[in-house]
Amino acid sequence: MPPTSDDPVLSPRTSGRRRFLTAGIAGGAVLGLGGLLTACGSSGGSGGSGSSGSTPAGGGSSPNQKSVKQGGDDYAAVIERMKGFGTDAAPGVYPRTLRHAMGETVLPARPTRVVVLDTGELDNVVALGIQPVGIVYTDGSKSLTSYLKDKAGSPAAVGTINSLNLEAIAALKPDLILGSQLRAQDQYAQLSKIAPTVFSLRPGYPWKQNFLLNASAFGLEAEAKTQLDAYQAAAAAIGAKLGDKRPTITPLRFMPGRTRLYAELSFIGTILTDVPLPQPAIEQVKELAVEVSPEQIDKADADWIFYGVYGSPSSTNQDAVLGGALWKTLGAVKSGQARPVSDETWFLGLGVMAANVVLNDLKGFVAPGS
User: Fold this and answer.
1) How far apart are CA 178 and CA 169, in angstroms?
2) pTM score
3) 40 vs 13: CA distance, rounded Å
4) DSSP-assigned letter for residue 43
């Protein structure tokens, strides 16, 4: 499976733990963090110990990774676990020590050459006015996301989310690397030898906390909080415009080999909660997504269906589903309220800039004039 920014990636040593969290919810498979994990490779090989300005986590300073990956109670508790992350340093004061998923990392000065290892970190630094020197691509696209192109500069490619090119990263001489434990835990030691490295627990669901963590590396926590407050106000304005007339929303995504209805513990799920806009009962679960077969696409029905596609539509069952007889029976389809949306913002963006684009999309569809 090609990984996406709301999906986990594990190293070859742990990829054998792949599993579904199956449940008898209207015939769908509930997908938590353990669902369909994909191996993460690196051109740098397996790493050794040691770091540059970093202290490996020990004792109770890092979460139980197995539990976090598999979903359930620990999945929902990710935000609680991140409350100790960040720094005690005053704004603009360096050196500063950052607490994060892998322990503590010392930044001797404000970073100026940053490499980001996921779409959320890219959104985060660009939102703070920082142009990264290096980025990774998703397997679905080998180009810079269009909604960031005019602000992100011309960063060099350093591999893909699930296959980091460590030599390319080192060649850029970064002074900060931002990523997540869930994506690249096995490469952390090697990355830390290249530059101070700061990892969140995971991308996706805790995107707001990840933004604040990333901002703390630059002493821009206040700026990040201001942007998050503005986002929350914009979400609340949509809710106020709707009043008691709040339509149900299904975020539907076509991917190679699977079709997903995104649930509460996903990036888009948090945005719907913030408005708030309800989701159908099948999606009201503390998980990333619910998977359905083409024969179960009626489970997606809601007042509005917003669907995206990961990568090339021809590699998914999108055309077969949208052209099928069952799709045409859905209420949202009959009423003209099943609409395509940008996958790179609704499902891949994982940051405040993408979230604001999604809010604008929602406002235009369900609350025009708000």
Assistant:
1) 12
2) 0.84
3) 10
4) T
